[in-house]
Amino acid sequence: MKLTSRFAAAFLALGLAVGLTGRAALAGDADAFLGTWALNAAKSTLPQAGGQMGVTITVTDAGGGKYKSVTEASVAGQSYTVEITFAIDGKDYVPVVTPAPPGGTPSMSQSYERVSAKSYKSAAKMNGQVLATSTSEVSADGKVMTVKTTAAGGGDALNTLVFDKK
């Protein structure tokens, strides 16, 4: 399935970063993903959605075994806020995007699975079909988070986003 809209491409770029950030926080090292993370564009391979991209992610404990991630981002000159509350349980969760996507935009969702205490894997889906997967990992010192995204079915990385903890 191809990304058919500018919004869908932006969601993929933003959503995977948002989703991957919170997932591993439920693992044994509960504090690894919590906090505020800023994109380090100089160390990242940015998505082909076009233009400059700035991302700040905040991950907090939302209680009940779930975590909430909030991202403020600008992709190709368009600003978005994406919020998602989820558990690391393999189920699909739907993010809330502001401004709302244009009518007719395909349904987007994400699911999350734990890999280790400092890493997790998420899948971005359009109308239930996996478009891409991402693996998020926090460095041993807890200061850097790397999010690698690949297209469904594997292959070369679509992008690698590097975030510095604030």
What does this 3D model show about the protein?
By secondary structure, this protein is mainly beta. 11% of the residues lie in helices and 49% in strands. Strands 5-4-3-2-1-10-9-8-7-6 form a 10-stranded antiparallel β-sheet, with helices on one face. Strand 3 (66-75) and strand 4 (78-86) form a beta hairpin. The chain is globular, with a radius of gyration of 14 Å. 40% of the residues are buried. Residues 1-9 and 20-28 have low confidence and may be disordered.
Main attributes?
11% helix, mainly beta, 166 residues, 10-stranded antiparallel β-sheet, single chain
| Helical residues, percent | 10-25%
General shape:
globular
Number of helices: 1
DSSP, total strands: 10
Using the CA coordinates, give the radius of gyration.
14 Å
- Helix/strand class: mainly beta
Estimate what percentage of residues fall within beta strands.
Answer: over 45%
Beginning-to-end CA distance, first to last residue: 36 Å
Average per-residue pLDDT, rounded, comes to 77
Order of helices and strands: HEEEEEEEEEE
Largest sheet: 10 strands, antiparallel
Topology at a glance:
Elements: H1 6-23, E1 35-39, E2 53-63, E3 66-75, E4 78-86, E5 96-98, E6 108-116, E7 119-126, E8 129-138, E9 144-151, E10 157-165
Antiparallel strand pairs: 1-2, 1-10, 2-3, 3-4, 4-5, 6-7, 7-8, 8-9, 9-10
